[in-house]
């Protein structure tokens, strides 16, 4: 199966949405079958994924990931169904747990009880997407709309959670369709992530979940420069406790050790290790975001 890619904004673009769509169209022509976009403060990832999928028929789109704070699950469900209808069934919803300190800085508040909120959030989404109704009254959320909650063409919506801790993985196994680990190496996927989420899904009577591994990557011959770029770009994640635990579990000395660096053959070997470890899909996330890397897109399509 070809690897997916993450699309990034082009700072030189005259219109950001037009540029994302143009990148997606070009990537699809080169054989890419799935693109993902991240949530940012300057664009809405669900809307963007829906617009891309509507403009490029047959291309899978997804969000990786949309933090579920501060949106209410009914609001997000409506957005996701709209994107699914726009893409004619080619949209995947990826949710993130968020991080307390960035949320506090950005919004002036943070939301405690992350796992309890995740469980209730997924419960509401599951009810809307699977049954077409919502009547939830919990400690974290109330979702009891008096109007219809489904949209023609808007379901089903695959839901994935960027879960890497044990409790989040268990909740995701019970209520979501899989996980979107980033900076979780092959060892962590094989020994911890896949067994944990798969067991939870089996106990809940749900299908085997998908493990969609997002891998930072740089295609080029200068390994020293690539490693320096990886250390610079990934340093932020070393400050987030959930990522610190995953990095420690992998047993690496540097965040750069978790990146796929080098020529096409080297990156291909890294992707193969992730698949051998149990990743059902691999997504390449470019470390150099100064320009769209069409050579990387071609490599992703060939892997």
From TrEMBL:
CDD domains membership: Tetrahydromethanopterin_reductase (cd01097)
Molecular function terms, GO-annotated: oxidoreductase activity, acting on paired donors, with incorporation or reduction of molecular oxygen
Pfam families to which the protein is assigned, alphabetical: Bac_luciferase
Residue ranges of domain Luciferase-like in the record: 12-252
Gene3D superfamilies hit by this protein: Luciferase-like domain
Domain of life (superkingdom): Bacteria
Residue ranges that the Swiss-Prot or TrEMBL entry lists as coiled coil: none
NCBIfam families named in the record: F420_MSMEG_4879
Record's protein name: Luciferase-like domain-containing protein
Organism field: Mycolicibacterium vaccae ATCC 25954
